[in-house]
Automatic annotation (TrEMBL):
SUPFAM superfamilies: Metallo-hydrolase/oxidoreductase (SSF56281)
Pfam families noted in UniProt: PDEase_II (PF02112)
Gene Ontology biological-process entries: cAMP catabolic process; negative regulation of glucose mediated signaling pathway
TM helices/strands, residue ranges: none
Molecular function GO terms recorded: 3',5'-cyclic-AMP phosphodiesterase activity; 3',5'-cyclic-GMP phosphodiesterase activity
Protein name per Swiss-Prot or TrEMBL: 3',5'-cyclic-nucleotide phosphodiesterase
Organism: Sphagnurus paluster
InterPro entries linked: Pdiesterase2, RibonucZ/Hydroxyglut_hydro
Gene3D superfamilies documented for this protein: Ribonuclease Z/Hydroxyacylglutathione hydrolase-like (3.60.15.10)
Coiled coil residues, start to end: none
Length: 360
């Protein structure tokens, strides 16, 4: 039997980026000019055709400063107001002020088409409390037909399904822990963001507490959903590391430090190995129960399991007393990298800096 000749392939699809992402702010406070805010679009579309925001701590003010320093940040020359007029929707991980203040402050002066705010019920309820005509004017509506409002609340359900939020872009939302407050558990989410045509994804975490500290582990569900896709359809993860090494568990306030982050990446590596061995695990909606596994996975087994994965570290909390030339990020990210190398996980660790243009 003769096989037909192979079709020539002009460009390997994996060599071409799927998304362009610009970092409007990547800090974890207290510097209000550099708070969590990311803008992205499919690589094959133009910025003026539509932009998706991922969290919105900083916004037009920060972008104006970035464009002053780098007028070609978006390849063509645009003003900050023009860029925000291209915005079609926001994906919001949780309603802490360092993730929403830019959205709130700019809501009264929006130009361009109506913008959807995609978030879970809890986060949309929190936003409603702000757009209440008290803390801020009521500028958002639940009503699709209510064109007077420039912002439209759009519910994301946590049903493990992908929800289309923009042409060719869908989002799967998984709840994660972000510490305790007086009423008990406080939650955030992780988003799997998929280009529907290219079937390529990236994973973006809201602020997250380590599963090792949480009353009910939930990040394991994200790792189990991610493991089968690594690295061919999922090769970029954005995750926080707010604190440096040495920060004790009782002082984490719902955030990661390098040891906990790398332990979490170790759990991901374990899930990757388990998947490759054919031991499938499903995403759980109930708490995990510890049980003995028949084939334990050793540190040698997970060596290199995350080869081909880029892990972008964000949300490092700055100490404004320290040297402004040495931001906390430059202390935390090398600590994470050293631990990843010690465990031989294989992931590439990258610091997210304000003003970066990242191709995914
Ligand atoms: Zn937070
Ligand atoms: Zn935060």
């Amino acid at each position: 039997m003769t096989l037909p000749p192979a079709e020539p392939s002009p460009i390997h699809p994996l060599l071409m980026p799927t998304f362009d992402l610009v970092v409007i702010g990547s800090g974890g406070g207290p510097d209000e000019t550099n708070l969590s805010a990311y803008l992205f679009k499919p690589h094959d579309a133009a910025w003026q055709d539509g932009i998706i925001a991922l969290d919105a701590g900083s916004a037009q003010g920060a972008l104006s400063q970035l464009l002053y320093r780098n007028p070609l940040l978006f390849n063509s020359r645009y003003t900050a107001a023009e860029i925000y007029s291209f915005l079609r929707c926001y994906l919001i991980t949780h309603a802490h002020l360092d993730h929403i203040s830019g959205l709130v402050l700019s809501a009264g002066s929006f130009r361009g088409p109506r913008k959807r705010i995609y978030a879970t019920k809890e986060t949309l309820d929190d936003l409603e409390n702000i757009f209440s005509d008290r803390i801020w004017p009521n500028l958002a509506s639940w009503n699709e037909a209510d064109d007077n409002y420039k912002l439209l609340y759009s519910l994301l359900t946590v049903d493990n399904k992908y929800r289309n939020v923009y042409p060719n872009v869908s989002v799967r939302t998984i709840p994660i822990n972000h510490g305790q407050n007086d009423s008990g558990h406080y939650g955030s989410v992780a988003f799997f963001i998929r280009h529907d045509v290219r079937q390529q994804e990236f994973l973006f975490f809201g602020d997250v507490e380590p599963d090792a500290v949480a009353a009910t582990p939930q990040t394991i569900n994200v790792w189990r959903a991610a493991a089968p896709k690594i690295p061919l359809t999922l090769s970029a993860i954005f995750i926080e590391c707010s604190w440096p090494t040495g920060r004790s568990d009782d002082m984490l306030f719902g955030h990661l430090n390098p040891v906990h982050l790398v332990n979490e990446l170790g759990v991901l590596a374990t899930e990757v190995v388990r998947f490759r061995r054919g031991e499938h695990a499903s995403v759980r909606t109930r708490p995990m129960r510890k049980k003995q596994r028949k084939n334990p996975i050793s540190p040698d087994d997970i060596a290199g399991a995350l080869d081909g994965l880029r892990v972008y570290i964000m949300h490092c909390k700055d100490d404004l007393d320290s040297d402004p030339e040495k931001p906390m990020r430059d202390i935390i990210v090398p600590q994470v990298r050293a631990l990843v190398e010690q465990k031989r996980l294989g992931a590439e660790i990258i610091a997210v800096r304000q003003g970066l243009h990242i191709e995914i």
